[in-house]
């Protein structure tokens, strides 16, 4: 069977951050740098995503005389809400979409990074096996506790929860667990959602959570 080539995007604006965005993950941002204010406004008007990549070197806020370096696999971020708090300050709520791989990148004169990227195939839908169901149950309990504490902004709506899907449950735990950034990135890049969930289960077991 002939496989179709991956979808490519040209001149995708990038947002290097000290975090890893997973598909279906939530990303709240407070933006004040000119390069990102302009980027978000243009993306919001066009209904276009931007790319989130994890920083390897440098800071989220641009420092004179320093430059950022970042990973080559990131996640598209779709803007769900965008609010101007005051002149020069925006609050944005974005959601992780598909993963991508950077083919080439460049930095514009005002500091914004752009890249040509190809999208990475979405995780296949894999049902959680019986011996790993405890991982989903533990996540459900955590979310219920957060709701009782009125921390709704940290919890997906119940209708968006995919309790039987390996990738979805693993990704939500990856967001919650205090793992090193490099490890979170490695988990994002795994192309087998069952293996990702099994690794998450190992972390939870060592932490005494399951």
Characterization of the model:
The chain has helices spanning 34-46, 133-148, 166-176, 181-189, 193-206, and strands at residues 8-17, 26-31, 50-57, 69-70, 73-86, 89-107, 113-119. With 210 residues, the chain is of the alpha+beta class. The chain is globular, with a radius of gyration of 18 Å. The mean pLDDT is 92. It has 2 domains: 8-119, LON domain-like (Archaeosine Trna-guanine Transglycosylase, Chain: A, domain 4); 130-206, BPP1347 like domain (LON domain-like fold, Orthogonal Bundle), CATH 1.10.4060.10. Strands 1-3-5-6-7 form a 5-stranded mixed barrel. The chain contains 5 helices and 7 strands.
Sheet with the most strands, sense and barrel status: 5 strands, mixed, barrel
Assembly state (oligomeric)? single chain
Order of helices and strands: EEHEEEEEHHHH
Which strand order do you get reading across the main beta sheet? 1-3-5-6-7
Distance between the termini: 42 Å
Flag low-confidence runs.
Answer: none
Number of helices: 5
Strand content: 25-35%
Helix content: 25-40%
The CATH class of the largest domain, by name, is Mainly Beta
The CATH superfamily of the largest domain is LON domain-like
Structural class, please? alpha+beta
Give the number of domains.
Answer: 2
Mean of residue pLDDT values: 92
């Amino acid at each position: 069977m002939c496989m179709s080539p991956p979808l490519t995007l040209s001149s995708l604006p990038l947002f290097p951050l000290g975090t890893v965005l997973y598909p279906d993950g939530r990303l709240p941002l407070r933006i004040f740098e000119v390069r990102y204010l302009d980027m978000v406004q243009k993306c919001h008007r066009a209904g276009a995503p931007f790319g989130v990549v994890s920083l390897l070197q440098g800071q989220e806020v641009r420092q004179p005389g320093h430059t950022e370096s970042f990973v080559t696999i990131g996640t598209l971020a779709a803007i769900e809400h965008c609010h101007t708090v005051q002149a020069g300050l925006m609050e944005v709520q974005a959601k992780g979409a598909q993963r991508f791989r950077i083919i080439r990148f460049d930095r514009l004169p005002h500091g914004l990074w752009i890249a040509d990227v190809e999208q990475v195939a979405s995780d296949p839908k894999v049902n959680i096996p019986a011996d790993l169901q405890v991982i989903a149950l533990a996540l459900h309990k955590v979310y219920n506790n957060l709701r009782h504490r009125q921390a709704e902004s940290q919890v997906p709506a119940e209708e968006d929860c995919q309790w039987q899907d390996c990738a979805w449950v693993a990704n939500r735990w990856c967001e919650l667990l205090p793992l090193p950034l490099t490890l979170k990135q490695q988990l994002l890049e795994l192309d087998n959602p069952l293996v990702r969930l099994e690794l998450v289960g190992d972390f939870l077991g060592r932490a005494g959570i399951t």
